[in-house]
Amino acid sequence: MHSSNLLIEEPIRMISILEPAKTSFFPAMTRIVGTLGPKSRSVDVISSCLKAGMSVARFDFSWGDSEYHQETLENLKAAIKTSKKLCAVMLDTVGAEMQVVNKNETSISLQADSQVILTPDQGQEASSEILPINFDGLAKSVKAGDTIFVGQYLFTGSETTSVWLEVAEVAGQDVVCTVKNSATLAGALFTLHASQIHIDLPTLTEKDKEVISTWGVKNKIDFLSLSYTRHAEDVRQAREFLSTLGDLSQTQIFAKIENVEGLTHFDEILQEADGIILSRGNLGIDLPPEKVFFFQKSALYKCNMAGKPAVLTRVVDSMTDNLRPTRAEATDVANAVLDGSDAILLGAETLRGLYPVETISTVGKICSEAEKVFNQDLYFKKTVKFVGEPMTHLESIASSAVRAAIKVKASVIICFTSSGRAARLIAKYRPTMPVLSVVIPRLKTNQLKWSFSGAFEARQSLIVRGLFPMLADPRHPAESTSASNESILKVALDHGKASGVIKPHDRVVICQKVGDASVVKIIELED
């Protein structure tokens, strides 16, 4: 693990604090995943979120039904049309999540040092003496002295809406607990988390499968966030399930690491998954606080070297209710970028927070500033060393394209691709300039009808740091030597000029296939 060398430029260029942040088509290279919910589901708010820098919309099925999420998604589609911004869709499963069921939605006050019983009898009404839960195996999994955490949706353990419980005794199927801090639980559902304890629940529940095979299939989801991934087998089973659902065989699976069990099997999970989400809220409860930073750095490093997107959660909790993040949170966002995170995932901050648009904008600005001092030179050397020799043909082309772009100070790298793989490999080397991924659609058939691929590949680039996709006209092949390639290059250059990243006399590095060969070329633009 080489995370001890801080990936920051030495010496750091002192940037005038009065210098305004550059606003452009690309607010930052680091991507922002926004969770859409009550405070962020109107067309107007979603449009503003897209303009502020959100490139992936997350739909969390821990709450809300398919109809509710479908309405939100229809609004997202309308916002994409009006704002002309691409956005991918992520479905987040419930997974092996234990929940307290509060059917009457009455507020429940718990006092420190009092006792409360957790029971699997969901017929009982939730009160300050008894909390019904959705899992009948808790009594078999815990023992006296174990810690249990209850909170609403997302929790930090500091606010007065979540509570620490200590198991006093197990009585049959019930678990008797002592309340460690006074708190008021409000709402219909609270998440229940048992620290460092194996919970025998399936990673992909029947409810998850139903949602994926109906809502997921109907909306051709780009990403599946697999909650509570604990083993590589969880990812394999999810992939097997998706492969039976037509278009969803192309859906990328992001393993959500939420507990010590997932961290223990991290290397095998990373091999199977398309990307990783580090769910720091739950990890922060499962791990001692002093260990969190190390696992974050280690996991991000491994994702970077594997060329798989790494997503970090829980960065600006305080912006759920406040217009500005705390100093610690602002530093945390910057460190996530310097540690190698591809994307920042906003949960409660955009779902039920008061300032969803401002949160996205603030996080984007912090990411942009951190990217300016990211030590690309050191990172590039580490990545090349990790890949080793001999390099594969594609790896060699990708690293050469990035090296050439840096040497000639190119303003952008343009990559023609049909699967998206070449563009992702280029992005893996973290070039300092944006990578424009021109996705060339391919004609495919299922014996009944012809259709073009490409839309999935383009949207799936939207979670990779520094990768900005555009979908080409399908009449232009990616592997042609004819003038058609020149016309598609012109479209890409015009796109870059319109977005402000390409200016007259700039140099541009182009990566494309010509016949069986891959070619990297440098062009200098005229006026």
From TrEMBL:
The keyword DNA-binding does not apply. It holds the Pfam family PK. Its EC number is 2.7.1.40. It is an enzyme of class 2 (transferase). Gene3D superfamilies: Phosphoenolpyruvate-binding domains, PK beta-barrel domain-like, Pyruvate kinase, C-terminal domain. NCBIfam families: pyruv_kin. This is Pyruvate kinase. The lineage of its organism: Eukaryota, Viridiplantae, Streptophyta, Embryophyta, Tracheophyta. The gene is 25499373.
